[in-house]
Amino acid sequence: MNKAIQTWMALDELHGTLNQRLEKLLRARYALTISEFAVISVLDKDDGVGLTIDQLSRSVNLSHSAVSRLVARLETCNTIEKRSGDSDRRSTVVRLSEQGRVDYKGTLPEITQIIEDVLQGNKEKMTFSLT
């Protein structure tokens, strides 16, 4: 089999395993989906000014409407805050609430452990070489 195809298949399998483990933890312990966690993670990196729905959409590789739905749900949980954009009142700016930031930081030890466990358990698959 072509080396590039083998690498792609190994990455896809690793991605699937990691997402399954993370999704299971996020749903059971925090009532979150992977996509919601991705939005929260992107907002945590933000400097507090906030991001538009379009910026979030590009960052997490989801459609504008999917991000809008996620944002609405996260807002009802007091995880994020929305406001109109300063320069364009038609745009919505989203940022992580203080409670959302605290909650996010609280998830990181378990999330990090799962990521490290999956990567450690798949070390042999992670020696990618396309040459």
UniProtKB/TrEMBL annotation:
Gene3D superfamilies: Winged helix-like DNA-binding domain superfamily/Winged helix DNA-binding domain. Residues 1-131 form the HTH marR-type domain. GO terms for biological process: response to stress. Keywords: DNA-binding. PROSITE patterns: HTH_MARR_2. One of its GO terms (molecular function) is DNA binding. This is HTH marR-type domain-containing protein. It comes from Paenibacillus pectinilyticus.
